[in-house]
Design a protein that fits this description.
heterodimer, A: mainly alpha, B: mainly alpha, 20 helices
Amino acid sequence: MIEWTFDRVARVIELTLALAFILAILLNFSNVVGRYLFGVSLLGSDEVQVFIMVGMTFLGAAIVTRRNQHLRMDVLLQFMPAPVRAVLRLAEQLLLATLACFVLTQSYFYARQIFRIGRTSDMTGIPMWIPHGMVVLGFGLILVIAVWRAVGIARRTPEPIHDGEAKP
Amino acid sequence: MTFALVVVPVVLLLLGFPIFMVLLTGVTVALVFFMHVPLVVMHQNLFGSVNATPLLAVPFFIYAGELMGRGSVAQRLVDFVQGGVGSVRGSLGVTAVGTSAIFGAISGASAATVATIGKVMVPAMRRAGYPETFTAGLITAVGAIDVIIPPSIPMIVYGAAAEESVARLYAAGVIPGLMIAAMLAAYVMWRARRENFGAGERFDLRRFLRAAGRSLWALGAPVIILGGIYGGVFSPTEAAAVACVYAGLVTTLVFRELGWRDIVEAAAATVMFTGQILIIVACAGVFAWLLTVNQVPAAVSAWLQSLNVSAWMLLLAINILLLAVGCFLDPLSAILLLSPLLVPMVKSVGIDTVHFGIVVTVNLAIGLFHPPFGINIFVAQTVLGLKLETIYRGIIPFVILYLIALALITYIPDISLIGVRYLLARG
């Protein structure tokens, strides 16, 4: 049930970001067309596109974590005995949870500060806690995934394999 | 500090931890245990590293390549190049090189090119009796041209890290990319003649014109992207967005191969790629910031000046370093980590930073297929079903060819800079 929920949440985030990304492309393209055909530019369009990319980076990283598809150099790992690999996988999840917790804390305090002072972006007036909050949300999700996975490894529960994921 | 920024990352990297974690652990240890700065700098630098308009071109170009790769574009380009070079000995090998060069002018993602072109070319080369080691080596090596011929994602990241114009880098990358393609094609023809395989067939003008007609829309993408950038019509980011819209229209409305669901799924795949790549960029940005505030680049530059090292010796040392690093790290992480160190060094001995950008890109392109860990080797192994041992044996002549090209590009700056002089629009 929890695995299913993780997968559904990851898919919803992925599709939302995909649609936002298509919007970013259309905004950029409209800017080019507007500049050459009508002599006008969409003010603040760049800001919106960059904030979408920020979302793709940190929320996308959470989806990549869920699907175990982060880039790594794991050739040497394949030559290690299975018990060593299992210990390393557990250590990886514990370290990831610690790092995510650290970044989450720092990012949360920063985003909360931005929210309190009501800072907005220069061109479009987007509240800046939203793009900064994507870092919080992304690392929050990574923390939950890492803790859940660490518990699964400690209990020796087999993990689901996703498309393109390296087999453990 | 050396423990945090060198020992911890190297150990975690060798243990197979994800690269973003390797970097994040190093900077976290440095910030918490060795530096007296507010810890919120972690968030500011993570966010600031990707809150950059030039980086938008990265997901845009990935998406354009993703759209073009999902339909029959690769097959159309192969038919076009094959129609043109079909009469030479080793024509299928030359076709693989030519198609990769054209595909590189659309996407700029090397592994995707190995998979896309390889799926078409490997079965054809097997049927035509090409030696398996030769086929494996060629297909694995040829994708590296993609990151040298613009649009190139490593060049965008180098431009951001070294504060250099991406348009100038793109202009500089054309001739080195074409030169490597020409060297590969010449080698293919020489091997085919020496070992008597890959006999050509008679040139058929009608077949060539038919293939040219079928590939016209696909060939339009590089014309729009590179023509737009060099002509001063678009910025590289805008060219990438225009390429996405063009690729979307061509694959849905002209070729009628993709539907709206495919368009969204290709965007979802791009979200995944972006999550994989830009999280590393964000973490590498914090790492580079730490190096800068600890004045490591300035110290290295001063040390170098005290040694009175000449430009050619410095370039030789950097090439060796980059080739070694390229065997273990992906190009983007390597560029972000090393640029703050290397760019001040090369500036101090009077090396042009555009020329240096191409040297860096070619080095890291070699790392993409260099044994034992080049990522394209594993793409060829898993996607194309080639044996690792066969790839390793077949790749060696191509590594040597690329190293010769690297030496020429490193020590003859005009190979890169001539493009900047003549390709970019004046004013």
